[in-house]
């Protein structure tokens, strides 16, 4: 079937079987390799993308469920070559080890920050707990997200002053 | 040689070559410097390449799987070359003898050896290039090289004003004599070693750049999946692909040595076709064991065979004779999967009588053997392009996925990407061996007089030599591969190297006990096994440090003081032990409902002491805090040392709490992260890492964080509940 999607702001039409997971459409039909295959069952979070503003596991989301939808992938966080604040924080904190899970981690955290101006540590941990990291980078992930939250709070209080 | 400025400009104008500094690792063929005046071609037997346009390329002979070689080894080059690490472009080495790991005589990354084996050679490579560049500049300026200095990719004139960039100097530098024994920078002049933070690959890994094996994309590429026999050792009897071939996009279905391959134009179509195959397996030689049989066979072997003596000191028999009492315990540890987050995959392309492979592999020279073994090609016809690895942990030392992709590509003649599913990855791993440990100590008064440790289980090399042995003799005819593997022709000629995989960490027993008897009973249930992060230390650490805790308890001593009294002759052990205890406030009571456990263990040359604070809440083990004191010699990148130790802790706790691969009728029962879970964010403890400031040569950090955390947690649970944990994974209630 022909499936229409808007991916990272760009309208796309792909010709695939309706049950093809969104993951493989994004990776192989659209060539966006940042979204990773980890488990195929929605258990590890490496394939996390935003579909219509919600974080979803693209490995277990048939593309037909995304028909007409708005998809943001890790590549969509970078605009005109400028890294997203989370990506900058990831670099600053040296978060990635093997790095394979980090796209998914960042996409989960990005969704949190879109909907919660100043999340607590518990909020952050809850938002990323579905994202496995075999290298054990968890503490740096939380520290990196917290640094973005702190700089936001700093900016807004500065703005009010 | 001197040269005036006009001549110099004439020489450098319009060239595009590079200065290639090549150093030979011990045991490899002669030193070569390569500069191709005409083509400026890069030569593969080199670490460093400088080009006329001021680029510095560094060939990384150790793969990057998260452990930080990409940054750490580049830092060594940067320090001596006087170029910022971020200005150097690392690239992964092709297969060549110069890139072999000198400890293994194979081009592999493992054993926490990258920094230890690169520390001298890479700094010498950087220093040699720097000296030649300085000499080149001095000859242009007609000044003494001793009066010039290098900084930030330039040579600075003695007057301090003029400078020449490395790019301008490369061709002249190539004409300088290679310094035989360059003087390395003294510690106090280091700019990057011990100071550099962060990771050079962090941005690529935070933006979704296509850097992993699974991301390789080639024109006209097709996809393959392979169905392997569910029981190890089974063979294909027959298959029916009539339904599969009717499905859209399916290009071919055929038998390969390891199973049935489906090739399709898209990955998902290959998977759907795989689902409708009907396959019959011949199970006559297949593994049929179930989990209980693994350990019953181990106990039987232990009863029948005391095993080979691996270390004997004093007379343990006498110690037993004269002992007031004997303390016994036995420990069982299960098979464990590696569970790299990037599943096994490889892309292969057969054309022009050669095969190119793109793969995340820890051992590219073994990848060549794997590809050659299943095709008509020789290893020289196989080119391996190593990518970033989405985790390794020892799994990618075995190139079964390269073997499969090559076998398929050889038949298809198009670029083929093979991807394993998570279920396939879990069920067709080569596992950390299940092990049995029988411990005994002789005790008189408050003294331990003898230590007996019988290790029962397989040796990994038995499973590994098939591809590893021929990789050391790539010129050997292929019909000899299996023979080489069988007789274990490895490393130095005919002698089979000693396989320490079962006994490491046990034979180095460091405590002052006068009579030692450490043995290995070699028995193998037939389950494929391999190296797994920290290898033998992973199980021997648990055995040694749990039994030490049992003895402390038996003697009514504090577990820390007990260890301390027996290790005051080992200053580096003692230092980390004291530090961990101080930081963990061992002498203060643990918070209400919690208890602490301790372990001290040296692996891969690195000393680690850990104190774990744990509780049992709502029937589940909860790890609150892990304090680690680490002595890994000279620290190159403090951030990476910290994250490796912390990552090791999470990896070890995952094994301690959940790791359990079990068999039923020869089949692995687990399949995905729901039944082979990994520690998650909301389960992680606070981890504190304290690093000893040391000037000793650097040792590895990728693995040593793993072994002690497992017994330290078990010991904490004993302190909490009074019940000893003698079987892994640990349970809230024993």
UniProtKB/TrEMBL annotation, chain A:
<dbReference type="InterPro" id="IPR012675">
    <property type="entry name" value="Beta-grasp_dom_sf"/>
</dbReference>
<keyword id="KW-0001">2Fe-2S</keyword>
<feature type="domain" description="2Fe-2S ferredoxin-type">
    <location>
        <begin position="1"/>
        <end position="77"/>
    </location>
</feature>
<dbReference type="InterPro" id="IPR001041">
    <property type="entry name" value="2Fe-2S_ferredoxin-type"/>
</dbReference>
<keyword id="KW-0411">Iron-sulfur</keyword>
<dbReference type="InterPro" id="IPR036884">
    <property type="entry name" value="2Fe-2S-bd_dom_sf"/>
</dbReference>
<dbReference type="InterPro" id="IPR051452">
    <property type="entry name" value="Diverse_Oxidoreductases"/>
</dbReference>
<dbReference type="InterPro" id="IPR002888">
    <property type="entry name" value="2Fe-2S-bd"/>
</dbReference>
<dbReference type="GO" id="GO:0016491">
    <property type="term" value="F:oxidoreductase activity"/>
</dbReference>
<keyword id="KW-0408">Iron</keyword>
<keyword id="KW-0560">Oxidoreductase</keyword>
<dbReference type="GO" id="GO:0051537">
    <property type="term" value="F:2 iron, 2 sulfur cluster binding"/>
</dbReference>
<dbReference type="InterPro" id="IPR036010">
    <property type="entry name" value="2Fe-2S_ferredoxin-like_sf"/>
</dbReference>
<dbReference type="GO" id="GO:0046872">
    <property type="term" value="F:metal ion binding"/>
</dbReference>
<keyword id="KW-0479">Metal-binding</keyword>
<dbReference type="InterPro" id="IPR006058">
    <property type="entry name" value="2Fe2S_fd_BS"/>
</dbReference>
<protein>
    <submittedName>
        <fullName>(2Fe-2S)-binding protein</fullName>
    </submittedName>
</protein>
<dbReference type="Pfam" id="PF01799">
    <property type="entry name" value="Fer2_2"/>
</dbReference>
<dbReference type="Pfam" id="PF00111">
    <property type="entry name" value="Fer2"/>
</dbReference>
UniProtKB/TrEMBL annotation, chain B:
<dbReference type="InterPro" id="IPR052516">
    <property type="entry name" value="N-heterocyclic_Hydroxylase"/>
</dbReference>
<dbReference type="InterPro" id="IPR000674">
    <property type="entry name" value="Ald_Oxase/Xan_DH_a/b"/>
</dbReference>
<protein>
    <submittedName>
        <fullName>Xanthine dehydrogenase family protein molybdopterin-binding subunit</fullName>
    </submittedName>
</protein>
<dbReference type="InterPro" id="IPR012368">
    <property type="entry name" value="OxRdtase_Mopterin-bd_su_IorB"/>
</dbReference>
<dbReference type="InterPro" id="IPR006311">
    <property type="entry name" value="TAT_signal"/>
</dbReference>
<dbReference type="InterPro" id="IPR037165">
    <property type="entry name" value="AldOxase/xan_DH_Mopterin-bd_sf"/>
</dbReference>
<feature type="compositionally biased region" description="Basic and acidic residues">
    <location>
        <begin position="300"/>
        <end position="314"/>
    </location>
</feature>
<dbReference type="InterPro" id="IPR008274">
    <property type="entry name" value="AldOxase/xan_DH_MoCoBD1"/>
</dbReference>
<dbReference type="GO" id="GO:0016491">
    <property type="term" value="F:oxidoreductase activity"/>
</dbReference>
<dbReference type="Pfam" id="PF20256">
    <property type="entry name" value="MoCoBD_2"/>
</dbReference>
<feature type="region of interest" description="Disordered">
    <location>
        <begin position="299"/>
        <end position="319"/>
    </location>
</feature>
<dbReference type="Pfam" id="PF02738">
    <property type="entry name" value="MoCoBD_1"/>
</dbReference>
<dbReference type="InterPro" id="IPR046867">
    <property type="entry name" value="AldOxase/xan_DH_MoCoBD2"/>
</dbReference>
<feature type="domain" description="Aldehyde oxidase/xanthine dehydrogenase a/b hammerhead">
    <location>
        <begin position="207"/>
        <end position="285"/>
    </location>
</feature>
